[in-house]
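Support case: user asked for a sample of complex input and structure output to validate their parser. Sending the pair below.
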Amino acid sequence: MTTPIRTLVVDDDFRVAGLHRDVVAARPGFVALEPALSVADAQDAIRSHQPDLLLVDIHLPDSNGIELVRACNIDAFVISAANDAPTIRRALRAGALAVLFKPFDPRLLTERLDRYARFRNLVSGTGPLVQDELDRALAILNGSNDPVTLSRSATEKLILEALNTDEASASEIAELTGVSRATAQRHLVALAARSLVEVRLRYGATGRPEHRYAAASTAEGV
Amino acid sequence: MTTPIRTLVVDDDFRVAGLHRDVVAARPGFVALEPALSVADAQDAIRSHQPDLLLVDIHLPDSNGIELVRACNIDAFVISAANDAPTIRRALRAGALAVLFKPFDPRLLTERLDRYARFRNLVSGTGPLVQDELDRALAILNGSNDPVTLSRSATEKLILEALNTDEASASEIAELTGVSRATAQRHLVALAARSLVEVRLRYGATGRPEHRYAAASTAEGV
DNA sequence: CAACGTCGAGCACAATGCGCAAAACTAACC
DNA sequence: GGTTAGTTTTGCGCATTGTGCTCGACGTTG
């Protein structure tokens, strides 16, 4: 497979769109088109550039990303801040090959892109497929073969849940979760490094400034 | 799962439609509607009966089965005599949850129906899904051939009995049962993957958090 | 017979908690 | 203003515990 996969990000949040475009651009075998910030932009870009893959946010200013996916005969991932089951079912029925819940670790997108590339390699021809080949391709896209190295560890999940929508220090999270302060801090620092958590410093008391952590607001702003 | 999955077969070949309807009708948890022989028939049946799942042949006399799948917000399998890769890609982009190549062994349809039922069970709620849950549901639908049988080996039975109503670590279960710690853990992990066992992490001691296992509560029977 | 699945032993290493030193702040003092 | 002391928080190295994996043995099945 020598032809790069042209990928169009469709998201009205300029910063998120840029982040996802950068993830795509960094992937060997992929070419990232300039993101589209609306369905109308996306349709223009689709006409101009014939992308092979769309990364479409559900909530777009002028329409619904799911309808865009349904209407175009292009492979697509749906990206969603909404994670209610009915929305997800609608996305799958519209033809989404994957659904990713914001905010997600960029490595999850990377992994899904790689899976898609392998899937695409198997179904990209013009000749006949046999059932086994198709099943294998779909298993690559959706299978559970890979160990859950890219999903959040149990402790990470616990810490993110403890954060909820509040801001907290590492000590407070430690008390809420039962892990030690040092462990909570280690995880929070790592999550911040991956942009899943935002950090703010609190001054005014004696001693070092306290790091306050909050869940990343990229999803909440949608 | 108490509500049967109403399933509509859409195929212009009366005999094949009847065959597939019979496969569906024979499946516990499924109700087969009277097959539709054209897209127009199908649209009538969809309005009258609100099917949960369509089995749609691509080649229909008055239109294209893929367009029917695309246009309706209903879970669908596509059944196809055509097995060229471009057609398959179109079907997947239209939202087909599975693609089956005619002629196929009825056991393949049976297996795919069962997978769909389990997938549906996981995504049928109205509440939020997390990424892991969605991924697991899709893996069930399309994953490699994990025979997630409900039968239990002797060792599994032994371990479940040792769990009883208590919470225990793999080491503790190993001592109670006489199997090795690694084997106990293997089985407990597999049981957890099948939602028969619940896992909780215990923090506070030096060293990795300890996985504590408990028999799944009866809430899983919903 | 070969193939396959399960098990146990042993090992590497992942992930935790502890203890402590350093960093970084505020308040007090000169 | 600058300097120092006290305090709080961070960050790190180390020891410990638990997990996950490999590989060979063994029993079962075709």
